[in-house]
């Protein structure tokens, strides 16, 4: 199919609850959606870049710039019949990094290709599962009581895995309190790079809490220190921010920097490399799970299809739509199957969700149309 037209849409959605991590608090999301048109069909992808370059160096402004000026124009008129054809376009050959910008456009094209074949996206890459085991990611709270209330609320809703954000001064105490109250819940911590190797003693003190894993305890760009830490603690370390490419995954596995990898499709530049990292990990017996970036329904749908691959054996950061937004941009929205803490993979053609164009027109703050 020849790509005829690409659109970039930007809008903002308030979060139902502020989300605080070790690098700051977020109360709303600025969202970019990419739409790709061909032969009367459209495919949609979401860009997960944030307003600030904290979790990653990309921002909504850099992603918009790279999409509009470098990635999208060479694709107009380009013939694409398989996902690999994307990488023969001049933009994808040239641009280094900017994975979140690349992923939004690439995932839109995967969606378009699946819609053209009238099959669910997962069928294009052999994703098999129909239900994805999920958990909830809880930001840093202002009080221990507030945290415990939130944990109780999500457990009552049926979430079977709790992840809490930690930072220096907010680690052992909150984790111990949750563990005492819920001796059997699957529990893990995400530090978003807030600690140093010299904090190894702190992670040793967590050993008796039976944590599923500790996510990204050390610097985003320091795989070696993670290997040193993993040698000193028995709790599995999971890498998030450190893994941007299949090469990063191979390096981390080779030097035992982690025992688990969190795959975020935006962080690794799109479904193609996300699938490749999944395969590398499967071969090495490293289980993976799908990370989240507070996506709208568009990105959440992509994530659910990705997580249907067999080596996604740990609960993913994919919660019900209502946990993030009052009104989503796409339908149907996602709800939790509370009996087994899963979310079902949408089964319509492509990603299985439809962007609500009236809502988009109402909320949109910026639009760019790229065509010949
Ligand atoms: O580190 O996993 C992270 C959200 C924004 C940036 C980084 C992270 C997160 C989450 C949210 O933990 C997970 C979700 O979307 O539910
Ligand atoms: Mg993380």
Give an account of the 3D structure:
The chain is an alpha/beta fold. Strands 5-6-7-8-9-10-11 form a seven-stranded parallel β-sheet. Strands 3-2-1-15 form a four-stranded antiparallel β-sheet, with helices on both faces. The chain has a two-stranded antiparallel ribbon with strand order 4-13. Helix 1 crosses helix 3, helix 5 crosses helix 6 and helix 9 runs parallel beside helix 10. The radius of gyration is 20 Å and the shape is globular. It binds 2-succinylbenzoate and magnesium ion (MG). The site of magnesium ion has 7 residues, from loops.
In this entry the ligands are: 2-succinylbenzoate, magnesium ion
Give the distance, in angstroms, between the N- and C-terminal Cα atoms: 15 Å
Largest sheet: 7 strands, parallel
Determine the structural class based on helices, strands and strand pairing. alpha/beta
Q: Count of helical segments?
A: 12
What is the number of beta strands? 15
Structure in a nutshell:
The chain is an alpha/beta fold and 372 residues long. It is built from 12 helices and 15 strands. The protein has helices at residues 60-71, 90-94, 99-116, 122-125, 144-157, 172-181, 200-205, 223-232, 246-254, 271-283, 297-306, 357-363; strands at residues 5-21, 24-38, 41-47, 131-133, 136-138, 161-165, 186-190, 214-215, 237-239, 260-263, 288-290, 330-331, 342-344, 354-355, 366-371.
